[in-house]
Write a structure and sequence with these properties.
This protein has 127 residues and is α+β, with helices and mostly antiparallel strands. The protein is built from 4 helices and 8 strands; from the N terminus they run H-E-E-E-E-E-E-H-E-E-H-H. Strands 1-8-3-6 form a 4-stranded antiparallel sheet. A 4-stranded antiparallel sheet has the order 2-7-4-5, with no helix packed on it. The longest helix has 8 residues. The radius of gyration is 15 Å and the shape is globular.
């Protein structure tokens, strides 16, 4: 699967498509490797608000419950995205994402998402 084949990028304009390749990279995670974790505010700045899309593998999304136990809440497969909520609301992440198997993940720049993709009506519909 290629990034532009995912449902998020269906029917996106060619000018946006041309900029996508300059604003993402692929990272490989080994089984049980942490991809993202909960965040805290540091000096009113939040770090790492990228969007993640599964290129290959499976990712488990989990959250700490009130007792501090990690509880699985979702599985992400090829073509699925995660991390979008913190990009949109600019608040700390409240979830963890861990590779359940060796996984390749597309990581898209938060600035590109905010400045280009979220202003695109078709992307917003796809989201």
């Amino acid at each position: 699967m290629e990034l532009l084949d995912t449902s998020l990028f269906r029917d996106i304009s060619p000018e946006i498509i041309n900029h996508i390749k300059d604003n993402f990279y692929i990272k490989t995670y080994n089984q049980k490797e942490l991809i993202i974790t909960e965040e805290t505010l540091e000096g009113n700045e939040i770090h790492n608000h990228s969007l993640y899309i599964v290129k290959s593998g499976i990712v488990v999304i989990s959250k700490l419950n009130m007792s501090g136990e990690e509880v699985s809440i979702d599985l992400k497969n090829i073509g699925d995205c995660f991390g979008m909520v913190s990009v949109i609301d600019n608040k700390p992440r409240t979830i963890r994402a861990v590779a359940l198997s060796r996984s390749e993940i597309w990581i898209i720049s938060p600035n590109f998402i905010k400045n280009d993709l979220l202003n695109n009506n078709q992307f917003s519909l796809n989201l």
